[in-house]
Design brief:
alpha+beta, SH3 type barrels, 2 helices, 5 strands, about 25% strand
Length: about 150
C-alpha cells in the first residue's frame, strides 16, 4: 500500500501533519498531488514547543517538509478493500491474461527443449499463451500476416 494512495483516499477527512521543523497542522485534507504537496482546510497550527496556536481557513504544505501524517484508521481499511477488489479483476493486468504479454516465443521455432506440453520437442511453439503482443500466435501485426505452420 503506497502512502500516496492512502493520502488520496483520505481526501476531505481530518488529519494531523507534522513537519520536519516540529510544527503540527490539524485540518481536513482538501487536495494532494504526486509530490505529496497538500492543501488543508479549517487548520489549527501548533508551534514546535506546543505553546502557540494559530487558526487558518486553509493552508498549503510542501511535501518535502512533511515528516509524519496521521490519518483515520477507516481510510486504511477502505484502501485495503479497494486493493483486494482491484486485484481480483480476472488476471488481465500488465503482461497477464489470455493474449500473451510481453516477450515469449513468437510462433515457431522456440529455443528448443521441453515446452511443458507432451509431444512437442525442440520445434515447440510458444505454448498456449500466444506470442508477443499480437494475441494467439500472430505476433505484433494483429493477424494481418497469418502464422506459417
Amino acid at each position: 500500500m503506497l502512502p500516496l494512495s492512502l493520502l488520496r483516499a483520505a481526501q476531505y477527512m481530518p488529519m494531523l501533519v507534522e513537519l520536519k521543523n516540529g510544527e503540527t497542522y490539524n485540518g481536513h485534507l482538501q487536495a494532494c498531488d504526486g509530490w505529496m504537496n497538500i492543501c488543508l482546510r479549517d487548520v489549527i497550527c501548533t508551534s514546535r514547543d506546543g505553546d502557540k496556536f494559530w487558526r487558518m481557513p486553509e493552508c498549503y504544505i510542501r511535501g518535502t517538509n512533511i515528516k509524519y501524517l496521521r490519518i483515520p484508521d477507516e481510510v486504511i481499511e477502505l484502501v485495503k478493500e479497494e486493493q483486494t477488489s482491484n486485484s481480483s479483476g480476472g488476471g488481465r493486468g500488465r503482461g497477464g491474461g489470455f493474449r500473451g504479454g510481453r516477450g515469449g516465443t513468437r510462433g515457431r521455432g522456440g529455443r528448443g527443449g521441453l515446452t511443458g506440453r507432451p509431444g512437442l520437442g525442440s520445434s515447440g511453439g510458444g505454448g498456449d499463451r500466444g506470442g508477443g503482443r499480437g494475441g494467439r500466435g500472430g505476433g505484433g501485426r494483429g493477424g494481418k500476416f497469418p502464422r506459417a505452420n
